[in-house]
Write a structure and sequence with these properties.
The chain is of the alpha+beta class. Helices cover 40% and strands 21% of the residues. The structure holds FE2/S2 (inorganic) cluster.
Amino acid sequence: MQYSKKVLDYFMKPRNLGELSNADGEATVGNPKCGDIMKIYLKINKNEAGEEIIEDIRFQTLGCGAAIATSSMATEMVKGKTLDEAYKITNQQVADELGGLPALKMHCSNLAADAIKKAIENYRTNTPK
Ligand code: FES
């Protein structure tokens, strides 16, 4: 099993690691295949066009190296994006951005995509229109 240099870099130096005390949306997801867990925190604001964007994002992942690398990459990919754009992120896109993942570790990238979607849903449910 071979990891790309980018996977190793994002595992060794995770971006956006930690928590946000005043998060507007958050979610915790577990990977049914292995029991690993990811928690995500979102700070939402509006851009000049009045669209809601992910102004800031943090994650905590209790999991394998691939889960940490994909969590980290996914947070970078959605930061500054509108909620609609961020909601569409897929585990395949995250894996591609990392230069690919070994087939056996593809399931690890589900955590990040799922957690981001759930955190957006959490924000939308709790925010009056
Ligand atoms: Fe559980 Fe990778 S082995 S997320």
